[in-house]
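User: I'm curious what two different proteins look like when written out as structure tokens. Can you demonstrate?

Assistant: Sure. I'll show them one after the other, since each token string lines up with its own sequence. Here's the first protein:
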Amino acid sequence: MTQEEVEYQKEFYQNASQELQERLERLDKDEGLSPATVGKRKHELICAHRLKFGRHPFVCSKCWSYLPVCVCHLATRSSKEWKYKNLLQVLVWTHHREWGLTSNTGSILGLTLGNNDASSHVVDTTHIDPSTDENNPCRLLMKGLPKHDEILQNILDDSARKREGDDESHGVDHDGSTLVVVLWPSSNPENAITLPQLRRELEASDPNNCFDSNPHEEVSDAMVSSSQKKIVLLAVDGTWRNARRMVAKLPSHVKRLDLDESTIRWNDSKATGDENSPSEDSSSMLSILAPLRRRGPSGKENQKTDLKVNASSLDNEKRQVCTAEAVVAALHEVGAIDTELAQQVLYATQTKVDRVRRYRGKVQ
């Protein structure tokens, strides 16, 4: 960026922040509103500001890396092939405090798996929020932002609605036209789903599989529509404490998917990101994110991902992975994405961690 562009970006962000502060102060002075209403509206304003302007004037609005070390160019589209792209959608449900953090990896999923435009990384107030595109295969939703909360609520409502004429469950007790599966362990087998069950749900909903038995049969749009059940994979993105609270708010009919260690570690020989990345052996790391985000004993607030129910502390330490790793592992295991695409996402994630770490001065 030129010096003029730097000054413009700083002034642009400062003006937006000043406007937000003035609106928050006006709410505090509004005697006609109850404290609860004031608090709710202030929270909504802060979330809307974070979506539109980000957390910092010099952080990329797409990959959430510092602008000088942006990784958006790694979000190539040539190899992005989903086997079930019309049936399966990933929702990265991000806590508002997590949104825009340079240490976040969920943003990489939106770039590499979704329809997000990575061509411009400077805040653009005219840019259409890709999360509002219901056909986007990977959407990032901010918890606390009204329009994003509404999107998720509509999906949850649809998943609870009785699916007319749907008598087959394929081993999963579910009636809705949308099957919502959250990446989170469950101690209750009634709301748990296994990876083989999820794969069967995908195969059963795939019209290419439904009509393979008679390739000469004319397939109408109505037949295809009636055979399809939309499946949403929900990834909760936040610290352990915040993520646990978010999951607790989900309705009981939402299925929970736990990943065992062999699934999580499917790609222990993953690429190490930048050629100039730190010399540590990445395969020895608990997670791609481990060098960047401090990790403590299982269950502490800085815990980034879900823990296994009734597991030992050591086992849970080994299971700590970032959001991108968990989603990629699940998609790869059920056959939704191939190894090439899965490794591409992990490479972009690793590169972001390496670059941000160096930019922060954590590498000598």
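Here's a second, unrelated protein for contrast:
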Amino acid sequence: MINFGQRSIFKQGGSFLISLPIQWVKSTNPANVKLEMDKEQRIIVTSVPAESCRARGTEEHNTN
């Protein structure tokens, strides 16, 4: 497992934001990301490739 270190959490309006590691974004080139929480309340971020988003018609602003 690659450790990208800690990330700060920023409040903006009614949301909280974190930055994604540039190395991860460049290597995965995601169109969207999928967020899941495991039993230990850890957030898992998974890249969703552009091809996958286009096939489902969800390339922009997917909130699922």
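A detail about the second structure: The chain is about 20% helix and 35% strand.
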